[in-house]
Design goal:
Low-confidence stretches: none
Strand order of the largest sheet: 1-2
Mean pLDDT: 80
Protein name: RanBP2-type domain-containing protein
Radius of gyration: 13 Å
Shape: elongated
Number of strands: 2
Structural class: mainly beta
Length: about 40
């Protein structure tokens, strides 16, 4: 029984920045790479 719990889909918990296309966690309002706001 070898189930990998670390490899979970993180699509729901992330969003892609429109400016630099960097992926940031949903709980963050601004992009961690360029600082652009999500909205």
């Amino acid at each position: 029984m070898s189930t990998t719990t670390t490899e979970r889909p993180v699509e729901q918990a992330t969003w892609v920045c429109d400016n630099c296309h960097g992926v940031t966690a949903t709980m963050r309002k601004r992009c961690r790479d360029c600082g652009t706001s999500r909205y």
